[in-house]
Amino acid sequence: xxxxxxxxxxxxxxxLAPMVRVGTLPMRLLALHYGADLVYCEEIIDKKILMCQxxxxxxxxxxxxxxxxxxxxxxxxxxxxxxxxxxLGTCDSKRAxxxxxxxxxxxxxxxxxxxxxxxxxIKGGMGAALLTQPDxxxxxxxxxxTELRVPVTCKIRVLPxxxxxxxxxxxxxxxxxxxxxxxxxxxxxxxxxxxxxSYIKAIAEALTIPVIANGGSKxxxxxxxxxxxxxxxxxxxxxxxxxxxxxxxxxxREGPLSYRDVISxxxxxxxxxxxxxxxxxxxxxxxLHDKMTEAPEADRCLxxxxxxxxxxxxxxxxxxxxxxxxxxxxxxxxxxMAGG
Length: 340
Ligand code: FNR
Fold this sequence. Notes:
By secondary structure, the chain is of the alpha/beta class.
């Protein structure tokens, strides 16, 4: 048996990348619907998840991790459980373990973000700040691998020097993680810069565990492009961020669908799981990013304030009404069962 827990889960897979604001429940379910094998949630900081309580939401059929003011920080449902990877932001092994233990019963794996270049992460010693802190990387990942019963992975950016990156990747492998996702840009490089596919290839050759290639969205418009990116990097799997954010049907083996189809399907999930309107708006606007002038619905989306507004803009009033009616019936049932 491999010493890497369930590493097969990360081989030959197409994966929705972790994306803040984008990787919430409706988008994850949409990616799975179109054929993604695994979906990562947006990065959630360990301190935040530790402040939450898990609550069963009978009305929606979800488990919600909620703050004391009832803000939902993380919503999940059983249909994604076997394919959902929870991405943690952390700089502390003890806190990481506590946070991950709280979540592990609801997910298929836990990932540590070691690539975020944002000031918030770097100042807190998280994300890409960890790339140059090998002792801390080792401590955090070893603690998680030892203490959790689900597979542990991490996602890095490359270092400017290839040999340094391979050294870091080997150190990460030595902690017992089940896979390593590599975004082929350095901490200071931006999405317009070329992805260093050759670095990913060299890392994939140097490691035994599956390497997940990331950073290819500039050249990914369809499933066959995902396959090309996989073969050019020699990686075990591919993780897609922006190409999926713009058109999630990029995961469809039969080819991508129109933005209209994708937005309608996305909204169905957003309605069903009562997604926050502000998050729904953000995601829909990302899908319209290069169609703001041509899409007749675009201007109205900019001023939309509720899920009802989105239902009207996209001609989905009937679908939304059915969902609301079903929810009302369920609410009455729940109240009746509780003797209320
Ligand atoms: C990201 N990325 C990111 N990475 C990560 O590890 N955790 C996160 O929460 C986020 N959040 C996030 C939000 C948004 C809107 C974008 C566009 C990106 C980085 C992302 O996962 C990926 O590494 C890069 O976008 C490169 O991959 P693509 O876009 O070329 O497929």
